[in-house]
Design brief:
Elements lengths: L14 H8 L31 E5 L2 E4 L1 H7 L4 H5 L5 E5 L6 E5 L8 E5 L2 E3 L16 E8 L13 E7 L2 H4 L6 E10 L4 E11 L9 E10 L3 E2 L5 E2 L5 E13 L2 E16 L13 H7 L1 H6 L3 E16 L9 E15 L15 E21 L2 E21 L13 E2 L7 E16 L2 E16 L19 E15 L4 E12 L3 H5 L18 E15 L7 E14 L2 E3 L18 E3 L2 E14 L3 E14 L12 E2 L7 E10 L4 E10 L21 E11 L7 E8 L20 E9 L1
Parallel strand pairs: 5-8
Antiparallel strand pairs: 1-2, 2-7, 3-4, 5-6, 7-8, 9-10, 9-36, 10-11, 11-14, 12-13, 14-15, 15-16, 16-17, 17-18, 18-19, 19-20, 19-21, 21-22, 22-23, 23-24, 24-25, 25-26, 26-29, 27-28, 29-30, 30-31, 30-32, 32-33, 33-34, 34-35, 35-36
Length: about 750
Amino acid sequence: MVSLSLLRTSSSFSLIPLLAALCGSPALATAPVDGGAADEAVDARLPRVQVNGLRSIAPGKTRITPDEIERQQALTVQQLLDNLPGVDLNGSWRPGGQSLNIWGFGDVEDVRVTLDGANKGFEKYRQGSIFIEPELIKRIAVDKGAHSVRYGNGGFGGTVRIDSKDAEDLLRPDERLGGLVKLGWAGNDRQRIASGSVFARAEAGSALPWQFLAALTARDSDNQRRADGSEYEFSATHSRSALLKLTLPLGESRLTLSNLEGRSKAWSPFAAKRDEVPAPTPAEIARYGEREAWLRKVLWREQADRTQVLLWQYAPAAQPLLDLQLRLSQSSSRQDDSRPDSITSDFAASLGKQSHASYRDRQFELSNTARFALGGGRHTLAAGLQAQQHERDTLMLLHTRLQDPSYNKGWLQPYYMPSGEQRSVSAWLEDEIRWGDLSLTPGLRYDHVRTEGVPNLAPRFNDPKAGHDYRAVFHHGWSQHLALAWRVGPRLQLFADAGRSWRAPVIDEVYEVQSAATSAPATSRGLLKERVTALRTGLTWEQRDWIAAGDSLAATLTGFRNLVHDNIHKRFGVMVEPGTTRPAQLPFYRNLPGYRSEGIELEAQYEARRLFASGSLAWMQGEHRGSIRDPWAGRNQPLIDSAAPKLVLVVGGKWPALGLAAGWQGKFVGAQRKVPDDEIVPYALPASKGYGLHGLFAQWQGRGQLADTRLSLSIDNLFNRSVQPYLAEAVYAPGRNIKLTLSQRL
């Protein structure tokens, strides 16, 4: 049986000890420090100074470049994205307690994340969803909303595409072998960061012009501190991450193999998405001692995350009808938790004395892009086939039930986090047609999804009389999208998008159960697809030589509206429609009438030789039809996941002769008072106050003999403000944090 495999020790190969050994240190080794893309290569005689790499790249899309990643010196990917309009950090500031919210969609299944094209996501209850080391990332692109047929079955909030670094990002022209080491320090939690990379390529004219990158990053810290000086208990970081990537150009084709993994170990509360761990009482301290009393409140967590990708690209220059890509990927995330031996309680509602959760995704994708002229227009016709297998394996131990056969003598799958498998087969087609300054892009996609549960090992939660049915269910259907863009003049472009998409229920939603004695014990095999109608429109403006010769201004205004139908939620409050007969075996999940979200965004960026500035403004609102507790009630309620208004400003200057750039960043967040006024609405968040946070940053790139040296300094929360962001669930943000990074090219 699948779940029993978790009892065995994993024997998977790990990159981290191998790379550490190659670098001659058990803890630290080499990981890449960003050097920019190939078209932004740094000349050793006069390296560029560029720190403002955040801008829209297309309507509805925003990119974070390597320069911006290095400037922010963020601990997590979620913190990097939190400065984007319409994108907000969801959860706490613990490294393992963060997920994302885009345009009011805050569930893990509503925000699709890919790493080098491989799907990433971790849906474990009250945990974070992305565990990718920022030091190994080249760039991030965010496409907001359900506006691409290249992705299906979910992702209503949008798609976050993360690309890891390549050797060509770090190699200089005509350079065959190089290295880069980086040391960092952060004052708030006394974080120490050591990373580095080794990168190489074949000699010019080689029959096999390979490129290779090996990297390792280590992070260690104490607990974070709030603005009042108190410790954010059990928020320390202890992680190791590694990347191996090999690129083989083979004639007109290209083969890329990558393996990226990260591991961490730490004491942590069961729910990483929470604020303060309740302090032990004086009686507990007297009985167990202070250290043991604290440890009884938490658990020991070991986490491993891994992504492997094989990408083959074939694009012969003489064949515009061929631009083939074949991608095979495998991704996994695993958490193993255990409580101290002195614990005698079961903690059945929070994964028991021990728990093990493993999520694995395997994906196949074949696509082609053909370019041709037909009917007076220029076509870019893209088509693809995809197949994906998602496996979820869970297990927990209730050690007081070791003699209870109804609980399988203590070993069982958590009834609220079942094991299972979801397989999907998909096909999509998209054609961008251009007639002069006008483009029209219709798209169509078909998905067929099969979801099957694993029968619980415990008879108590595998009882047909209670409606526990783990057999497979099927969902299938079409998604459509239409995009229109019109370049009105040399500076102005108008755009509009409309799409309809859907998602199948995830494994938890179909197979989560309760015991026969509860009010809604059954599996939810009758769930309908959750559907969305997504609308997006706006304009972009680009102007060069605006104030001075050589400067540039770019701005994007976007409005959006999402209409969600048959949204899936746990059954609370009024269990069935008044006047109807209540089923004997009531499922735990149901489809609700739906909700809407709408908002506007404004992004602008100005660039000159000695000055740069950017700004973004985001505002949104949303509303449930009826109530989560009573979907038949006449009174609507505010959408719980609506983010507060957010304004982010960056202003700075550059002094190229000195190799220096410096600036200020301000983040101003409005109050969020549009929250459900029913105090017993499940998962409702408390209203929050508005706040403003200020930061400073500077980067220095050496000159002359120091041309290979780079220094980055930033200060977050400069005035040490104490704030509680709305989507952080009343968690206090960290206080002032001074971050310093030194990188040296070898």
